[in-house]
Design a protein that fits this description.
The chain is 2% helix and 68% strand. The protein has one domain: Beta Barrel (Maltoporin, Chain A), CATH 2.40.170. The chain has a 19-stranded antiparallel β-sheet that branches. It is globular and about 60 Å long. The chain is an all-beta fold and 377 residues long.
Length: 377
């Protein structure tokens, strides 16, 4: 059955979130999920004209294993997805994700986590990390590797917690004929949460990143603070805001960044979630090193009963390149229906309409229908 409205925050660090993370390591898991899906897209490559429409059928396998032993735990989540298009066979692909992790329970007040991540994914022009890809390329393959070491300190993590993370990321994008971008980054993050009272927590965040886009180095520093608050069981709010400083090949820039989330339970059935964020990130455009991403979204969910949940989602994303006078705006409207057929079977139907605005080009519009049936073994 669907879990009733839960307050779960994924942005940065939250002391309450740390408890959930610890609980993930308190019970062994052995889960296997299989699914099949069908997708129809009216404009695959977000072209003004002529639009290319096609259908895709895909099968996916997800396996999540977690073993707990004396003094440590091992996790091995993996997923494999194979998709085939009716007409655009050049887009046929097999994608995968592998994220093994080792957690050492050093004491009641400290634990150390070593985690890695490998990912390969085919992305279509105009979407996600391929948002600035030329339509003539049609698609790109994105490969990501990550190694991260995290030390978490706090005898009472729901009241006070300090998390130190250091890691390295490699990311490459290539088309069928050439490499498009190669990125690497070494990073150090510090997140601190302190519970002031029963309903309010103080949050602090600091991060340093030494990055490189192809042969161009770039350094990012950011420092922020905020709080989380809860009003009974009906509303929870979190804010992290601060300043960032970026130095790219002797070109310096600075600005503000934020991550805000407000989750309101309007009634027993209705829930409203508001999100907004802005971050300075490496750009996947071939002629720019970094960009400023600003995202806003609103989601209104209705829990019809234990088996049915429907959602209406509105989102607006703005990507502004730092090294070019170019920005792209993406607007999305989606209807999402989840149907729990039984304890093992679940169905999802999603209707989405997206529009891309990039002056002086004409607007590009696409409509997508997504249907999936999955089973938990």
């Amino acid at each position: 059955m669907f879990r009733q409205y839960l307050f779960v925050f994924s942005t940065l660090f939250l002391s309450i979130h740390c408890v959930a993370a610890n609980n993930d390591w308190e019970q062994a898991k052995h889960q296997l999920r299989t699914s099949v899906e069908f997708v129809h897209n009216s404009n695959l490559y977000f072209q003004p004209a002529p639009a290319v429409a096609d259908e895709k059928a895909a099968a996916m396998l997800q396996y999540n294993w977690l073993g707990l032993f004396e003094g440590y735990g091992l996790a091995l989540p993996v997923s494999i997805k194979s998709g085939r298009y009716a007409d655009e066979s050049v887009l046929n692909s097999t994608d995968y994700q592998l994220s093994p992790a080792l957690k050492l329970f050093l004491s009641d007040a400290a634990d150390l986590t070593v985690q890695s991540h490998w990912q390969r994914e085919l992305l279509l022009a105009g979407s996600g990390k391929a948002e600035f890809l030329d339509v003539s390329q049609k698609s790109l393959t994105d490969e990501q590797k990550l190694l991260q070491l995290s030390l978490q300190l706090g005898r009472a993590p729901d009241k006070q917690n300090l998390k130190l993370s250091v890691g390295r990321m490699l990311n490459e994008q290539h088309s069928q004929t050439q490499q498009l971008t190669a990125q690497q980054a070494n990073f150090l993050k510090t997140d601190y949460g302190h519970r002031l009272n029963e309903n309010t927590s103080l949050l602090l965040n600091a991060e340093m990143r030494r990055e490189q886009q192809d042969q161009t180095p770039s350094e990012l520093q950011q420092l922020g603070a905020g709080w989380s608050s809860r009003v009974g069981g009906s509303q929870q709010f979190q804010l992290i805001a601060g300043r960032f400083w970026r130095n790219t090949a002797q070109q310096q820039s600075s600005g503000s960044y934020w991550q805000v989330q407000n989750l309101s339970k309007l009634s027993q059935q209705w829930q409203l979630e508001l999100l907004t964020s802005r971050n300075s990130v490496l750009s996947y455009a071939t002629d720019s090193v970094s960009q400023l991403d600003t995202r806003h979204s609103a989601s209104l969910a209705y829990q019809w009963n234990d088996a049915h949940q429907i959602s209406l989602i509105l989102a607006r994303n703005l990507a502004k390149l730092d090294q070019q006078q170019l920005q792209r705006r993406r607007l999305e409207l989606a209807f999402d229906w989840h149907w729990q057929l039984s304890t093992s079977w679940q169905q999802q139907l999603k209707l989405q309409r997206a529009k891309i605005e990039q002056r002086p080009e004409a607007d590009k519009v696409a409509t997508e229908v997504f249907w999936q049936v999955s089973r938990l073994w």
